[in-house]
Backbone:
């Protein structure tokens, strides 16, 4: 019998249903894995074994309505859990325990999931490598000298390493999909508005979404179904019925039309990633899909738009971290203005400071029109590219990341280089469309490569269906790192 | 130059972040490079475009005027770095 | 050198909703600190706003009653600045696509109607409250998130008195539509003023100062009077006016420069991403309009039609909802609308203005007031006596009959008594008598006045007039 921590949620649910195992068994399996591996990985930040046992023991009786009953789940550290440390891997939120749950946490609890703890992330989700965390970087389970991606690096690493069954991450410019790709797991960013943002500590309010990080597509579908749905506490959450993703993904994909954008196969795309993609596209064609080259003409502007729009919103969202009501407060301050300036000086890391300054600049008097407003207008062009594309295509396939996982420290000197690693994922956030990354190969150095499938708004079903069928036709998702 | 040290200093002040001299120099160079890159947006003609600040077409989302239970003060204050009874305490403002 | 004073007023009004603008916390006044707060109005990380529909409805009512154009599509924007009473470090407000613009408020100034233009009326959220101790400050967020309406006037106001009348007119309209407690002492209505001086006839505006910290309508008037004088004096000396914010000090009646270093605010307004836009469907607006109480204008038309009073009188009466109610109550017990209107617009309004009160504050029973009018009509007291009787009634709350008896105010109509005094006055004022004989009509008023003085106002002036003419 395989060790329980190496199974997927749907496999564990089947075992729980026939009574072969209990939630405690699963927890113990996961806890053992954590003890063995996390010292090397540093994927988890706030984790208390005693609390986990309390929660398992407090589990209400199993019944048919609890879709995730007994399954442990890890949560990215920017999602509020009542009375639990939620710090966005930042010093400025040191000690912060929110007095309320994010809506997704309530949904997980209502469905019987067991909250395990928090995963590491780039500070305030600012990053693509988890290197900006105040708790130190998380290491990629496939190569401990490399980054796991970011900003949901901790979530992706612990799922890939079987320290977790599955996890929730957040995605603003690729922060679920890119680490999923670099760690060889599945990561989904839902359509903007599909999942409530209430309780997600905001980075960029018009781009953020919470989504699943899982070992396979079926688990992603399962988790997506639980966390999706309208929330009256979130004005930007959409009132649309939630499809039964787990059953819908198992239908076939014959005759689906898939677009392959030329703009994603460019200079700078790693040769091995390119080769993997070609193979994957062939495989998808064998499944019955029709793949065709097409254009998303404004792709090259996405990173520029993102680093103006997202940082502008972030500069405003992070202005509240001032030491008044919670978190860190500088003791050196001579006046209340001084308190703000010094608290934010010592509380924020470099990347946070850079992005806040960049965003503040883009909104400031004299620069607003040339930077922020212009970026919002170009965003319209990017959104239109996808609207036009989805008139003809059911889905779009691209590489998730231009390269496999890079070395720790390799891109920290030049922020721009780091930003360009988001080049394939950012557009989906700007347009608000859903995207999923699934493993599609490995490099010669045994580093995972990911394939991204993008869909039209609220059509998670189609992209998950393609992802599921592809996965069932390959073995990439079964491979595990040796730590 | 897309951005000068003086501008970075001014903007950091707007954002209420104190920067060391080292940070100021370092960040100015980095931000300059980033802003240089984003200047590619200038090559596009945006005159007739509407800005997209919301990707959703939704309008008119609101709630009814009903009072809901507030947080108890103990919950409100429990993260406070400084407090006096049920009031947040800060350095003198005026 | 004559100068023109230019004033613009910015009024912030707390709307009377049960719950806050963006969350379900109560808006009740006076609760213990930080007991009416939640993650949303505290701005805790991860919290999100959801707009209170009633706030929008009340805001629309105000916009309609101020004759504003309501925008088809409205948005919210973030106004970014740092202050400890602002937990998110931004205020959800409206900047580029506000609720409404281009309205006007008719104000009676020296008997003439002046239409003060309203630049905009928009919705935003209130901040917390600060309490300053000797070496630290304390913050209560109960008030944070209460819906506020910002009403900005054009700089159409040209004197501190006009500013006062504008505020009174505004309050009366707001009371008609019952959207706010309009209480400056409790803070549900706040006012900041901008004032500048320019040479009469000049088209350019002078440098303006912003005046804050005025806690009553009267304070607004006093503060502006002081500031107007200060600026004019400065200009006469050839000094430059500094563009600054000044605080009014109620104890000394002066404005003082805020000594703290003033940085021009860069609010970095941008569209609030957590709230979606609103469009006012025609049906929605029509529904609001239909439910509005009879507004001053409609009431004015009705009063003119029903009671045959003049446009001017009707306009004055409806200026205050409670005044209009008082008027109609009086007319229902005494069918002399013109007389009632005259007294309301004349002596009663003068008293109200002088003592900074409202008609309800006077607590003058309609029966007492009407009783007094009846006494005038019957000749029991003279019109002149009635003026002081009115004040007595207001101050003592006694009924007019009791007061008349108490003070012996009955009019002297007895011919014999009047005749004696008339004779005296004729003897004492030969010059005026001569003037009257030679055709100078003004002299009669002088002589009547003399008789009235001798009778302490109690003589029946008509009879006095007749008798004087007969004797001369």
Residues:
């Amino acid at each position: 019998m395989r060790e329980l921590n190496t199974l997927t949620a749907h496999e564990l649910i089947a075992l729980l249903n026939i009574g072969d195992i209990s939630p405690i068994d699963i927890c113990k399996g996961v806890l053992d894995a954590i003890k063995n591996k996390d010292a090397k990985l540093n994927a988890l930040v706030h984790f208390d074994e005693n609390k986990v046992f309390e929660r398992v023991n407090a589990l209400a009786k199993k019944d048919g309505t609890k879709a995730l009953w007994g399954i442990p789940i890890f949560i990215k550290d920017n999602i509020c859990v009542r009375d639990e440390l939620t710090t966005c891997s930042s010093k400025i939120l040191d000690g912060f325990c929110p007095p309320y749950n994010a809506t997704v946490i309530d949904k997980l609890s209502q469905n019987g999931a067991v909250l395990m703890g928090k995963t590491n992330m780039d500070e305030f989700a600012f990053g693509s490598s988890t290197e900006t965390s105040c708790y130190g970087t998380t290491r990629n389970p496939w190569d401990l000298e490399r980054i796991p991606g970011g900003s949901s690096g901790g979530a992706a690493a612990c799922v890939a390493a079987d320290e977790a069954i599955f996890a929730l991450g957040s995605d603003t410019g690729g922060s679920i999909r890119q680490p999923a790709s670099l760690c060889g797991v599945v990561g989904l960013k839902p359509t903007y508005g599909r999942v409530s943002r209430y309780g997600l500590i905001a980075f960029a309010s018009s781009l953020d979404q919470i989504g699943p990080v899982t070992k396979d597509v079926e688990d992603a579908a399962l988790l997506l179904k639980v966390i999706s749905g309208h929330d009256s506490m979130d004005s930007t959450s959409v009132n649309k019925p939630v499809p039964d993703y787990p059953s819908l993904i198992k239908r076939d994909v014959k005759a689906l039309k898939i677009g392959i954008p030329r703009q994603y196969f460019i200079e700078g795309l790693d040769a091995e990633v390119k080769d993997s993609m070609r193979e994957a596209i062939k495989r998808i064609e064998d499944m019955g899909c029709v793949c065709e080259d097409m254009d998303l003409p404004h792709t090259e502007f996405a990173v520029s738009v993102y680093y103006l729009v997202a940082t502008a919103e972030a500069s405003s969202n992070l202005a509240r971290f001032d030491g008044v009501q919670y978190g860190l407060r500088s003791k050196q301050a001579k006046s209340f203005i001084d308190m703000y300036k010094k608290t934010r000086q010592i509380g924020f890391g470099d990347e946070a400071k850079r992005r806040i300054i960049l965003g503040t600049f883009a909104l400031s008097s004299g620069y607003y029109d040339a930077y922020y407003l212009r970026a919002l207008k170009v965003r319209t062009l990017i959104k239109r590219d996808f609207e036009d594309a989805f008139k003809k295509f059911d889905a779009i396939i691209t590489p998730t990341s231009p390269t496999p996982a890079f070395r720790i420290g390799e891109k920290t000197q030049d922020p721009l280089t780091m930003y360009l690693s988001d080049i394939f994922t950012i557009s989906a956030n700007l347009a608000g469309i859903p995207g999923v990354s699934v493993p599609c190969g490995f490099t010669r150095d045994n580093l995972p490569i990911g394939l991204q499938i993008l869909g039209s708004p609220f059509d998670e079903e189609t992209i998950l269906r393609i992802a599921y069928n592809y996965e069932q036709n390959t073995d990439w998702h079964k491979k595990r790192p040796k730590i | 130059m897309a951005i000068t040290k003086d501008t970075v200093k001014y903007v950091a002040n707007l954002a209420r972040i104190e920067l060391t001299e080292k940070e100021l120099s370092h960040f100015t160079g980095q931000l300059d490079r980033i802003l240089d890159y984003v200047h590619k947006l200038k090559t596009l003609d945006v005159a007739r475009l509407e800005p997209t600040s919301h990707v959703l077409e939704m309008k008119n989302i609101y709630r009814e005027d009903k009072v809901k239970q507030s947080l108890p003060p103990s919950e409100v204050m429990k993260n406070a770095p400084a407090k006096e009874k049920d009031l947040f305490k800060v350095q003198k403002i005026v | 050198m004559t100068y023109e004073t230019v004033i613009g007023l910015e009024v912030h009004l707390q709307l009377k909703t049960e719950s806050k603008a963006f969350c379900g916390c109560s808006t009740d006044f006076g609760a213990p600190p930080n007991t009416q707060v939640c993650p949303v109005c505290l701005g805790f990380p991860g919290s999100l706003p959801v707009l209170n529909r009633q706030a929008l409805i009340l805001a629309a009512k105000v916009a309609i009653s101020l004759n504003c154009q309501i925008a088809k599509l409205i948005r919210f924007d973030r106004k970014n600045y740092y202050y400890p009473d602002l937990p998110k470090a931004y205020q959800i407000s409206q900047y580029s696509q506000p609720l409404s613009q281009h309205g006007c408020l008719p104000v009676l100034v020296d008997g003439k109607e002046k239409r003060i233009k309203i630049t905009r009326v928009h919705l935003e959220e209130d901040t917390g409250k600060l309490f300053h101790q000797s070496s630290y400050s304390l913050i209560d967020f109960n008030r944070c998130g209460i819906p506020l309406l910002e009403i900005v006037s054009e700089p159409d106001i040209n004197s501190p008195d006009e500013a006062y009348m504008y505020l009174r007119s505004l309050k009366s309209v707001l009371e008609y539509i019952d959207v706010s407690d309009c209480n400056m002492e409790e803070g549900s209505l706040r006012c900041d003023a901008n004032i500048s001086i320019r040479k009469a006839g000049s088209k350019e505006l002078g440098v303006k100062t912003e005046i804050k910290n005025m806690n009553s309508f009267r304070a607004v008037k006093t503060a502006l009077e002081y500031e107007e004088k200060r600026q004019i004096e400065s200009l006469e000396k050839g000094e430059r006016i500094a563009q600054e914010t000044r605080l009014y000090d109620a104890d000394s009646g002066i404005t003082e420069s805020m000594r703290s270093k003033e940085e021009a605010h860069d609010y970095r307004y941008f569209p609030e991403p957590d709230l979606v836009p609103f469009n006012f469907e025609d049906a929605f607006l029509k529904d609001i309009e239909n439910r509005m109480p009879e507004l001053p204008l409609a009431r004015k038309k009705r009063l003119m039609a029903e009671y045959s009073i003049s446009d001017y009188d009707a306009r004055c009466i409806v200026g205050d909802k409670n005044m209009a109610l008082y008027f109609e109550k009086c007319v229902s017990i005494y069918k002399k609308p013109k007389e009632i209107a005259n007294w309301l617009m004349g002596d009663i309004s003068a008293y109200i203005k002088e003592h900074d009160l409202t008609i309800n504050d006077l607590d003058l029973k309609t029966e007492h007031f009407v009783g007094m009018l009846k006494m005038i009509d019957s000749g029991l007291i003279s019109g002149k006596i009635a003026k002081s009787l009115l004040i007595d009634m207001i101050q003592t709350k006694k009924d007019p009959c009791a007061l008349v008896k108490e003070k012996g105010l009955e009019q002297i109509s007895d011919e014999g008594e009047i005749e004696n005094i008339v004779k005296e006055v004729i003897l004492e004022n030969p010059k005026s008598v001569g003037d009257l004989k030679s055709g100078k009509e003004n002299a009669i008023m002088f002589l009547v006045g003399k008789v009235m003085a001798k009778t302490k106002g109690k003589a029946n002036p008509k009879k006095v007039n007749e008798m004087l003419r007969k004797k001369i």
About this structure: Strands of chain B lie at 62-63, 83-84, 87-91. The longest helix of chain B spans residues 21-38. The CA atoms of residues 77 and 87 of chain B lie 8 Å apart. Chain B touches chain C at residues 14, 16, 53-54, 56, 58-73, 76-77, 84-94 (CB under 8 Å).
